[in-house]
Amino acid sequence: MNPVFLLSGKTLCIRRLKQFDLQDSYYDLMSLLSASDRSILRTREIVDNLENEYIYFVVEDMNTKMIVGTGTIIIANT
């Protein structure tokens, strides 16, 4: 179950990045980040290959179905 919370009257959900997000507004949101961060997620193969090193999350507005935030957890293999 994905965490759902209210913030400033908006119902938001934190969930893992899905493949269909890459075809939607995710890259619009990513354009706010640095070029190196944006280059990580160019294709589906990259997302699949990085699954063991990175976990990508999005914050979705449940009413508009728009992605309004993103976060990445980097898994360090030491």
Structure explained in plain terms:
There is one protein chain. The chain has three helices and four strands. It is of the alpha+beta class and about 80 residues long. It has a single domain, classed as Aminopeptidase (3-Layer(aba) Sandwich). It has a four-stranded antiparallel β-sheet with strand order 1-2-3-4. A hairpin with a 5-residue loop joins strand 3 and strand 4. The longest helix is centred in the middle third of the chain and has 6 residues, at about 45-50. The chain is globular and about 40 Å long. The N and C termini lie far apart (about 30 Å).
Number of domains: 1
Strand order of the largest sheet: 1-2-3-4
| CATH C-level category | Alpha Beta
Please name the fourth-level CATH homologous superfamily: Gcn5-related N-acetyltransferase (GNAT)
Here the CATH topology equals Aminopeptidase
Percent range of helical residues: 10-25%
Instruction: Indicate the CATH architecture.
Output: 3-Layer(aba) Sandwich
Q: What low-confidence regions span 5 or more consecutive residues with pLDDT below 50?
A: none
How many helical elements? 3
Walk me through the topology.
Layout: E1 4-7, E2 10-16, H1 26-30, H2 35-39, H3 44-49, E3 54-61, E4 67-74
Antiparallel strand pairs: 1-2, 2-3, 3-4
Describe what is shown at a glance.
With 78 residues, the protein is an alpha+beta fold. The chain has helices spanning 26-30, 35-39, 44-49; strands at 4-7, 10-16, 54-61, 67-74. It has 3 helices and 4 strands, in the order E-E-H-H-H-E-E.
Describe this protein with a few key phrases.
78 residues; alpha+beta; Aminopeptidase; four-stranded antiparallel β-sheet; 3 helices; 35% strand; globular
